[in-house]
Design goal:
Layout (H helix, E strand, L loop, with lengths): L6 H24 L2 H15 L4 E3 L10 E7 L2 H13 L6 E7 L10 E5 L3 H6 L1 H6 L3 E5 L10 E6 L2 E7 H5 L3 E3 L1 H6 L1 E3 L1
Parallel strand pairs: 2-3, 2-4, 4-5, 5-6, 7-9
Antiparallel strand pairs: 1-8, 6-7
Length: 186
């Protein structure tokens, strides 16, 4: 008895095989190491809102959307835009914007910043706390006042860490699942 595949079944099999190849091997072929890291960082940033909620005592929060703002980083913004169009955050719509200064951040939003913006972060800590802005840093030194989550590279792998003291002084509710994956920093 032999197994004979009909043409539609074979076409589906080939399509799945091609998509598997593209998902697993194409990033290594099409992108360099830096572009691949930016794409992975964007993936991490786009998933963080799934694990963070604002305190229930805040009545003005719109739970149907998540606003992620990127501080002057066009590469991460483009990758986030690509990811957001394909994978919504739970049942919340992802809204993206690029900002030029941290004090342009919307209340109850997530802001991604790099080492180039440390001065802005340190000068605007009161703004961040008063407006419940969740700060995601990229390769910043710890401990840093105002920073909540930091993405860094260690032995060619992306890792992240959180600032326990900064999170405790805010009105965020952070899932233990996120905290288990990240390294704790005082």
């Amino acid at each position: 008895m032999s197994l004979v595949l009909e043409r539609p079944v074979m076409a589906i099999f080939v399509a799945k095989l091609v998509s598997l190849f593209f998902c697993l091997l194409a990033p290594n072929i099409l992108f360099g190491a830096e572009e691949k890291q930016l794409l992975i960082k964007a993936g991490i940033i786009s998933k963080v809102p799934n694990f963070v909620k604002w305190s229930p005592k805040k009545e003005c929060i719109d739970d149907t959307r998540v606003h992620i703002q990127v501080l002057e980083n066009d590469h991460v913004y483009k990758n986030l835009k690509l990811l957001a169009s394909h994978s919504p955050t739970k049942k919340r719509k992802i809204e993206l914007s690029m900002i030029n200064h941290i004090n342009q951040a919307e209340s109850y939003s997530f802001v991604y910043l790099t080492k180039n913006h440390v001065d802005q972060l340190l000068k605007n800590i009161d703004f961040i706390k008063n407006n419940s802005v969740f700060i995601i840093g990229d390769g910043l030194d710890y401990p840093m006042n105002g920073l909540h989550l930091n993405i860094y590279t260690e032995k060619k792998k992306l890792r992240f860490e959180y600032s326990h003291s900064n999170l405790m002084s805010t009105d965020f509710l952070i899932s233990h699942k996120l905290l288990k994956l990240a390294r704790r920093n005082k």
